[in-house]
Design a protein that fits this description.
With 367 residues, the protein is of the alpha/beta class. Helices cover 44% and strands 16% of the residues. The chain has helices at residues 3-11, 28-40, 80-90, 104-109, 111-133, 172-191, 213-222, 242-255, 272-287, 316-322, 330-343, 345-353, 355-363; strands at 18-23, 44-50, 70-74, 94-97, 141-147, 195-200, 202-204, 227-230, 236-241, 261-264, 269-271, 298-301. The structure holds nicotinamide-adenine-dinucleotide (NAD) and thymidine-5'-diphosphate.
Length: 367
């Protein structure tokens, strides 16, 4: 670990109740989880470990970066010695693991990168926790954040993914997440490590990297660029507002039963084309365009290879056991989201131009 990071961490008050290592905290969902934990639990020390790949952006955490209970460490979950050092020196007792390569289209182009980060990175993190905790697991927890995509695809009917649904991943992304879930369960079953896993549906909201459907299309509507709809736009996704996901993670981290899996979902299914039409309606209105202006931007393009037809989550277990349910209706969530991207055009422009990466390259040039 670079000396400056180490010093910063040591300087933080030593009397925290817990030390939680959140990986991937500079990404989309991770930044919401870090923000929630730093603000809600001043008695916890929160360490955000992130490699700052193209998807990581510290601008996502500007509002909390100076909080005394927060520290950022730039590093790779595949770096064995860094993890060893971090666990040993910081006395980490909780892990919330979100770091991953997360975009299906990228996984189709480079499956090996997904195997490295998502599978080997997770294994590395598990092993570092195991070695540091030395079989003394009281007060410890390894929380692995996963996706509903491990379950494969549903037909156009009323079936839902439950925690009992057999794993059947199709894309290199979902295969790598499935493998990482299996390793987490193996560490629980074999070594007795206290682990919990959640599998969530598609998230939307502020700070999502604009190669994913919702931010990409908002960006393109604003810039009057084509909206590339894969295939016929008939695929179905279940969408959850990202802050609701962060709240579910909080609830599961504190109250979830060890060794269990919890599905997290929005009870909110949309075909891609219907969702896009809603986005066009809301965005045109906010931009002052006559209704339907951006419909002409819809461009049907070649379908994604192996494109999963439908994802839909049954989150009843989480609701019944831990009392969590989504707080936002989709109509409210999508308005908030579109308005955020339109109000934060600098963030979007910086990310799409790659400007923010140059800033980090300079900042970390000596490391
Ligand atoms: P993201 O791509 O926005 O962020 C991933 C973060 O991980 C980035 O900050 C990146 O820099 C970091 N990272 C990547 N490789 C790393 C490495 N080797 N070491 C350290 N950090 C590394 O992803 P996201 O959408 O925020 O997803 C976060 C997690 O939630 C992932 O595990 C993903 O599988 C899961 N998930 C995502 C969704 C979704 O809709 N986005 C839904 C369900 C589950
Ligand atoms: P995405 O945001 O990539 O999430 P995921 O593939 O993990 O579900 O895509 C959401 C849906 O939108 C998915 O069915 C693919 C589709 N899609 C498009 O039609 N066009 C696009 O440009 C993108 C990025 C996605």
């Amino acid at each position: 670990m670079p000396e400056t990071d180490e010093k910063k961490i040591r300087m933080a008050t030593e009397s925290y109740k817990r030390t939680i290592l959140i990986t991937g905290g500079a990404g989309f969902i991770g930044s919401h989880v870090v923000r929630l934990f730093v603000n809600k639990y001043p008695e916890y020390k929160i360490i955000n470990l992130d490699k700052l790949t193209y998807a990581g952006n510290l601008a996502n955490l500007k509002d909390i970066e100076n909080k005394p209970n927060y520290t950022f460490v730039k590093g790779d979950i595949c770096d064995e010695s860094l993890l060893k050092d971090l666990f040993a020196k910081q006395k980490v007792d909780g892990v919330i693991h979100l770091a991953a390569e997360s975009h299906v289209d990228r996984s189709i182009k480079d499956p090996f990168l997904f195997a490295r980060t998502n599978v080997l990175g997770t294994l590395n993190l598990l092993q570092a926790a195991k070695e540091s905790w030395k079989n003394d697991y009281s007060g410890k927890l390894f929380y692995h954040v996963s996706t509903d995509e491990v379950y494969g695809a549903l037909e156009f009917d009323d079936t839902l993914f439950t925690e009992e649904t057999r794993y059947d991943p199709h894309s290199p992304y979902s295969a790598s997440k499935a493998a990482s879930d299996h390793f987490v369960r193996a560490y629980h079953d074999t070594y007795g490590m206290p682990c919990v896993i959640s599998n969530c549906s598609n998230n939307y909201g502020p700070y999502q990297f604009p190669e994913k459907l919702i931010p990409l299309f908002i960006h393109n509507i604003r810039n009057k660029k084509a909206l590339p709809v894969y295939g016929k736009g008939e695929n179905v996704r279940d969408w959850l507002y990202v802050e609701d996901h962060a709240c579910a993670i909080d609830v599961i981290f504190h109250k979830g039963r060890v060794g269990e899996t919890y599905n997290i979902g929005g009870f909110n299914e949309w075909t891609n084309i219907d969702l896009i039409k809603v986005m066009i309606k809301v965005a045109d209105k906010m931009l002052g365009n006559p209704e339907g202006t951006s419909t002409e931007l819809i461009t049907y393009v070649t379908d994604r290879a192996g494109h999963d037809l439908r994802y839909a989550i049954d989150a009843t277990k989480l609701k019944k056991e831990l009392g969590w349910e989504p707080s936002l209706q989709f109509e409210e969530g999508i308005e908030k989201t579109i308005s955020w991207y339109l109000d934060n055009q600098d963030w979007l422009d910086n990310v799409t131009s790659g400007e923010y990466q140059k800033y980090y390259e300079e900042m970390y040039a000596d490391r």
